[in-house]
Design a protein that fits this description.
This protein has 13 helices and 3 strands. With 306 residues, it is mainly alpha-helical.
Length: 306
């Protein structure tokens, strides 16, 4: 499975089942593993000695309450409960428990969703400009920031990019997204220039596009987060900036320039309009502009008919 610390054999068996039978994507497996690890650790404190598949509904309700107190949203809790429900169903079918105590249980969260915090265009420019490019390592880190903001990539998508995913003919990246869904993302001109220079410096060697320093392994998510954090600090951004902030900023700035929601959804690799709808906050200042534009178009059409 992974070089991470192994969980209980029953949990590891479930993860193998998801991988080999259900054919879940690597990202899904990481999410499920993370959820089951965190819940196991929490329940070890709430009800010591009781494994996940033997815990009662009241134990899970206490865990959910603690998660809420720590600021986790309803959407996050709903996803975690879904992961747990799948595992408990597997444990029941394996004869390790009498029933799935979370069967039919759902999270009802009516709290208003807050739009993601994003950089302004000027702040995004400052973050990029705060990335020096004197050494090969600095150029590699600068390219991370450029690709995250310039192409709207998820952290894991950036880490999994390969040299062969760079399509120089069409000036786009072939991105391997969630659920093994691939998409083509155009590379902005400025980003493409630095990307080609980086590849030329590396001799166009195949394999991971962004490698760990001195190794052939692809860069890890933690390093990407550190690179973005340091760049934001150098740019004097007074709040926490993450790789996801750059992705949110990419989508918001596109929408603010009039790019349609459907196009943005394809660029981001979203499956449903709900996912992209979080960026609708960018439209609130453009309602009057849209109405005025519609009025002008109607006037022109009436004039042409006359």
């Amino acid at each position: 499975m992974s070089k991470q610390k192994a969980l209980h054999p029953l949990i590891e068996g479930y993860l193998l089942y998801l991988r080999d039978v259900s054919r879940k994507a690597a990202g899904t497996l990481r999410d499920v593993r993370c959820t089951l690890r965190r819940v196991s650790e929490s329940l070890a404190t709430l009800c010591p000695g009781v494994p996940l598949w033997k815990a009662e509904l009241k134990d899970y309700l206490r865990w959910i309450e603690l998660e809420r107190e720590h600021g986790h949203t309803g959407g996050t809790l709903a996803k975690n409960v879904s992961h747990l429900r799948g595992f408990l169903d597997y444990a029941w079918r394996c004869g390790r428990s009498d029933r799935n105590v979370l069967d039919g249980f759902t999270i009802q969260d009516k709290s208003p969703s807050c739009p993601p915090r994003v950089l302004t265009v000027a702040e995004a420019r400052r973050v990029v400009e705060a990335c020096p490019g004197q050494t090969s390592q600095e150029r590699r880190e600068r390219l991370m920031v450029l690709l995250l903001y310039g192409c709207g990539l998820r952290t894991q998508e950036l880490c999994e990019l390969r040299v062969q995913d760079v399509d120089t003919e069409h000036k786009q990246l072939q991105v391997h997204g969630k659920g093994d869904r691939e998409r083509a993302v155009p590379i902005p001109g400025g980003v493409l220039t630095e990307l080609l220079a980086y590849l030329l410096e590396r001799g166009w060697k195949r394999g991971p596009l962004l490698r760990q320093t001195g190794r052939r392994r692809p860069v890890g998510a933690h390093e990407v987060c550190d690179v973005v954090r340091r760049a934001a600090e150098r740019a004097a951004i007074g709040w926490k900036v993450t790789p996801k902030t750059l992705r949110h900023s990419y989508a918001t700035h596109l929408m603010d320039r009039g790019v349609g929601l459907a196009v943005i959804a394809r660029l981001l690799g979203h499956r449903t309009p709900t996912e992209t709808g979080v960026y609708l906050h960018a439209l609130k200042h453009r309602k009057r502009e849209a109405v005025d534009r519609l009025s002008r178009n109607q006037s022109h059409q009436e004039g042409a008919e006359e």
